[in-house]
Amino acid sequence: MANRPFGEVPEYAKGDYVLEKIAKEARQTRRNWLADQVLAPNEPRLPVKKLPAWKEALVGPIRRAVQPIDSKIGYSLTRSYYFGRRWLLFFVLPVWFSHYCIKYHVANKPGTLVMSKSPVFPGEEELDGTRVR
Q1: What is the model's pTM?
Q2: Cα–Cα distance measured from residue 13 to residue 85, given in angstroms and rounded to the nearest whole number
Q3: Helix/strand/coil for 15
């Protein structure tokens, strides 16, 4: 895609009344939306959410040490922290919990899960007492 100033009509649309009109309407819609984002003096503003003092004492020094480095590398440390937190919460913990439940609650009951069977050769008895021919 060629670099062109924001809002300029592409080459293929020049001279086409419909496409120029659509582009003009889209520009106007963007301008209106941006103007609507400005809060009037009487509109409420959300208060700044501050951490409790004990949490700020724990997290603050780490955040202040990491923030300058993180801002220089495009906040990839922050992104990876939040991604890792989601990964742990929504994937690792449910898989671990399912594995735990199956291993210690379902698999302990005889006949519920078959992990592996030892080979039975002709002439030997199976676990249920029948002979294999």
Answers
A1: 0.46
A2: 46
A3: coil
